[in-house]
Structures are given as C-alpha cells and as structure tokens.
Write a structure and sequence with these properties.
single chain; about 200 residues; alpha+beta; Arc Repressor Mutant, subunit A; 2 domains; three-stranded antiparallel sheet; three-stranded mixed sheet; 9 helices; 8 strands; elongated
Length: about 200
C-alpha cells in the first residue's frame, strides 16, 4: 500500500498480521467500503479466492483455503485428499479443500468440498500447526482410512507406502479406526510390513 496516513498504516499492519486470509465482511468493516477491496485487488495487494474470501499475496492459495477453514469454520475437520496432502501422504493437486462437518451443521461454500459426517465418525481429530495457523485435521492413520474409502487402488497404496516411510506405523490405532469406520487398512498395512 502506498501512502502514509495513519489509517493506511493501520490497515497495512492488520493485513500483515495473522493468517493473511479475510472475509469480504471483515474487509468492508476494516476498509469502509467494497470499492477499497477492489482497489487492493487491482493493486495486487489482495487476491480474491472466491466465495467472499481474500488473501494477501504472501499466502499460497492452497494454504489460504486451509487457513479459511481454520478461521471461519472452526468445527470443520480437514479430511480426504486434503488431509493426505498435508500429512505428506499424497501429492495430488486439489481445486478445493475437503472438510468434514457434523451432519446437523449447515455449511455451503463453493470454495470447499464439504462432507456431512455422523458424530461417530469424528475419530482421530488432532490440532496441528499449518503455516502458522492451528488447524483441525484427521491424524495420519485416520487419513489412511479416508484414502481407503476414496480409492482402494493407487491413491490408497501410495499413501500407505508413504505412511510407512514417514511415520512409525501404529497398527493398534489403525485397528480401532478400521473397526469404527468399516475400513480394512490394517490387513493392507500388515501385508506391506511383511513384504518390506
């Protein structure tokens, strides 16, 4: 931002703080009107992400999506392929972050792939730091169960092999998740461990 007024300095300080993601509502409150948002977008000081959200240019758009989930949808849990990517169990490219929310929660946002889930399926939820923002995400073992449910072929086996390289396998935890979620990750893990 160019200029030196107190208001501009204050706005610049706020834009540099935190996770670098904003809703249009809070930007209007901060800047005074929507035209100011458009000027920042035209000056490449704000990036529109869609669905009324923006980020500063210093934040990668994929990271910004996850930060939006953490800031604006605190009950949501990063899941599916998004969780696999964050845990370095997949290198897929996504257009939308995938999140699980309780069935009774309403969330409609074109920026996110939203899955409504029964409370009994919210197992293995952990909080972790992701580029300076605390996020709710399934742990690596629970994420493997998601991979099994999404694609029992290449996606799952690639994630399983990476899990064995990156983490200390936890068969007991996987067995508990398999029982609760109706997946069969443990037999695949045992087979991989036996052939390793």
């Amino acid at each position: 931002m160019s200029g030196t007024s107190k208001k501009e300095k204050h706005i610049q300080r706020i834009m540099e703080q935190g996770s670098g993601v904003f809703s249009s509502r809070e930007l209007v409150k901060l800047l005074g009107h929507r035209m100011a948002i458009q000027r920042l977008v035209q000056a490449d000081e704000l990036l529109p992400l869609g669905s009324g959200f923006y980020s500063t240019p210093k934040v990668d758009p994929a990271v910004a999506q996850i930060h939006i989930v953490a800031r604006f949808y605190p009950r949501a849990v990063i899941s599916g392929v998004s969780a696999l990517i964050i845990h370095r169990l997949s290198d897929e490219k996504l257009d939308k972050a995938t999140v699980d929310i309780p069935k009774e929660t309403k969330l409609a946002n074109r920026l996110l792939n939203v899955r409504r889930v029964a409370k009994s399926r919210f197992v293995g939820v952990v909080r972790m730091d992701y580029f300076g923002q605390k996020i709710r995400i399934y742990d690596p073992e629970r994420s493997l169960c998601d991979a099994y449910r999404i694609d029992r072929g290449a996606l799952f086996f690639k994630a399983l092999k990476r899990y064995m390289r990156e983490y200390s396998p936890n068969p007991e935890k996987i067995a508990r998740y398999d029982k609760r979620l109706g997946t069969k990750v443990l037999p695949a893990l045992q087979q991989e461990l036996a052939s390793a």
